[in-house]
Amino acid sequence: MKFDRYNSSLLPQNLNPKNPPRPLRGRDQLNLPPSNSKMREEKKQQLKMAEEQMQLLRSKATELLLREEWKDCVHAYSQYISLCQDQISSTDTLLEADQLHKIRKSICLALSNRAEARSRLRDFSKALEDCDQALQIDSNHFKTLFCKGKILLNLNRYSIAMECFRVALLDPQANGSSQSVNGYLEKCKKLDLLSKTGAFDLSDWIVNGFRGKSPELAEYTGAVQIRKSEISGRGLFTTKNMDAGTLVLVTKAIATERSILPGKDLSEDAQLVMWKNFIDKVADLSTKCNKTGNLISKLSTGEDEDGLEVPDICLFRPETEEKSHPVEIEMGKMLAILDVNSLAEDAVSTKVLGKNNDYYGVGLWFLASFINHSCCPNARRLHVGDYLIVHACRDIKAGEEITFAYFDPLSPLDKRKEMSMTWGIQCKCKRCNFEEELWSKKEAREIEIGLERGMDVGGIVYRLEEEMRRWMVRGRERAYLRASFWSAYSEAYRSDRTMKRWGRRIPAMDAVVDSIVDVVGSHERLLKIFTEGMKKNGGLIGMERALKLCRGVYGKIVKKQAMRTLLDFHD
Ligand SMILES: C[S@@+](CC[C@H](N)C(=O)[O-])C[C@H]1O[C@@H](n2cnc3c(N)ncnc32)[C@H](O)[C@@H]1O
């Protein structure tokens, strides 16, 4: 075909007279794409700019890390990491192998530092994700392994934590910090053993008068499982016989909030503020960690408990991996869960353990949340640091449900009913049922009224014992009533005048204490009267029984010296 030079559409655009040509330069004159070398030049330029930007961001992130401004630090490292990743993907072909290696190393360190910052914010799930990503880049990265080990230790996942510290120690970088890493490794080994054996020993701390840092504990689950309960919903059951003092479980708080409350007038407001902070903490944790969120969502709201699923106890073990999806717990449900399951750290045992009277603490502990109330409890709890220790307060048979007293079991039926209302429960235990029935007797009500009106306690005890003989109330049932009227018994045993007057006509103190311990379990108020009695009798008679009582109240404290220190508390 003849070349039609006037057919403008066939002309290159920049030679088209309809489009005035712009000044042409170099390769542009031929309308060719930029040469490889030009592209390289431009990319290099971009690379340089990005590098400068990254440098700035990295310095900023490091500074925030050193200043311990964790939130901003996480943010800065996130920006830095995504810039690095962008750079790798956009300049992939242009990066020399060593440049690529350098950037990947920087990402690894940034992930490690972000993990550190996240762990300080207690965002352990995300911190662990960062560690794992960093270790994908460099599986022996010392800083990351050290950080991951510490996070896992915090989460009581001792065996994987140990593995991290062991690998970290192989790194030549560990030299400078090997003492510290070794320290963590030893701690892990000790706690791992404790978590498997439950061989805790609080003796030294107790002998030292609970001064100094509370002893290091590990999570431990004894011979127990979660099952359907005849009391309500789910409960915790033993799978083996346990004698008084046996450790049932040790569990670390999901969250706690503590304070020394100011003067009385302010204390209600202060408690409200604490409660709000506590709710915020738990809500925050449940969104940060899928496992925590999922486990919280399995707790009772106090409604329709019998329809609730029975979770496997393994789910609550720290080493159980979280494979769960995020759950969103709506605020109303969260409030109900916390209302039903949170425990106040104001148990008498906490006060004995060296805390002030105006000290107030609240917390949530998973496994303890499955323990139902009974007025004849077989277990007690003790708070040490963030840990809750549950032990048998009397002998328990395999298959029996573990129960706490949510309120004072050494109080009369009416008082217990009043207290159960504040807990939103209606106790139907054997003791409550028996006493309910007995209270139809006019004599029983008269005894109670007598106690309320401050009648002579010796006379009250005498009358109650006489009536029980007449009603043919024996064994456990007799112990129920003695526990309900314990305030009269203890006052009588304590008063020399009363004992002089009624001594022979009322039963001996140790027989009454023994009968109550058998059904209601050991209790510090029983221990107190017992040790006072021992002192009056000149010392060591009854020491073995006192120690047994003491084990029921505080668990199996290993050294006798520590037991004696505890007994002294009750003088
Ligand atoms: C800490 S939870 C105990 C575990 C609960 N049963 C579950 O299934 O998750 C406390 C709740 O259990 C129920 N509960 C505990 N003890 C009870 C009792 N003695 N009588 C009736 N309900 C009880 C009440 O609904 C209470 O709010």
UniProtKB/TrEMBL annotation:
Top-level taxon in the UniProt lineage: Eukaryota
Instruction: Please note every region of biased composition (Low complexity).
Output: 7-17
- Disordered: where is this region? 1-44
Q: SET domain spans which residues?
A: 222-407
An example Pfam family from this entry, by short name, is SET
Q: Which InterPro entries match?
A: Gramillin-biosynth_MTr, SET_dom, SET_dom_sf, TPR-like_helical_dom_sf, TPR_rpt
Protein name, please?
A: Histone-lysine N-methyltransferase
Q: What is the lineage of its organism?
A: Eukaryota, Viridiplantae, Streptophyta, Embryophyta, Tracheophyta
